[in-house]
Amino acid sequence: MDLFFFVKLLIVIFFLVMFLRGSKVVWGIGLLTVSTAFVLDTIWSTFGREEILADVGFFFYVLTGGLFAGAAIWLWSLLRKHIYAGVPAEGNSAATPRQIELTIAGDSAPAQGDGAYGAGQELFEQIRFSLGPEDVRDLIFDLQLNENDVLAPQQEMTHTVTRLVNLAQQQEKMGALALAVERILTPVSPESLPRREKLSTDSPPTVLRHYLLAHYSLEALTALASSLDVDYEHMDHSNKSELARSLLLYLQRRNQLGRLIQRLQEPALAHEQE
Q: Alpha helix locations (H) across 106-239?
């Protein structure tokens, strides 16, 4: 066995290790491509390329084309995120993940230490791949951000999350964002929430939201809204999360959270919660 054989074998082992580390499709394609090339090259070296070509004929070119296609797919999958980094979608001025790096690491970023970019990128990926659009609206509410600053009609999820992370960074709310994400991924148990008598208008809106979600069904929330003379039919109320958020925003904008707190602490309603 010559040195060239060991080089080829090392390449196959490298692709195998990369595939086992991440089990990603892109490295699976690369592993299949280099393994096939390695086997075919070994066979051709052993039995002679011309003899095999004469026996296989047309399929030789099919295999060759498949190897080139596999190599092209592997290379494109690795490079595409770098090619499109920093290029906004047509007709949309929202930032992309690359622009998150520029914002967090730029001169306008607050002093958050050398790990600021890493934290921002990690949060971006966690929100983008672990949460849905409804969860993002909950994050906007928990951080007390303006939805219009984050959401836009027909905006892709990637751009929405980018706007959210950039805005949280600009307002120095990265810690609050990380905590809000954790609370969504690991919901707070009812026992960990403040008791109803401890609730007040000074309670953080996110605490009130989690309290409503933990203690009320969708039907109970609609009844609560009606008891406060709130026309929930004109709110987002297709699910409990939407209605809880919409109800709190409605009362908060009208400085009427005190009415909600008073209603929650009424003995009759307290008995229903229990």
A: 116-130, 133-142, 147-150, 157-170, 174-185, 205-215, 218-227
Of 185, 204, 231, the residue that ends a domain is 185
pTM of the model: 0.57
Query: Count of CB atoms within 10 A of residue 134's CB?
Result: 14
Q: Where are the alpha helices (DSSP H) in 23-154?
A: 25-47, 49-56, 58-83, 97-105, 116-130, 133-142, 147-150
In this structure, the answer to whether residues 106 and 178 fall within a common structural domain is: yes
13: containing domain? 3-83
Phi, psi (5° rounding) for residue 209? -65, -45
Burial class (CB in 10 A: 0-12, 13-18, 19+), 252: middle
The string of pLDDT tens digits covering residues 63-88 is: 777 878 878 887 777 676 555 444 44
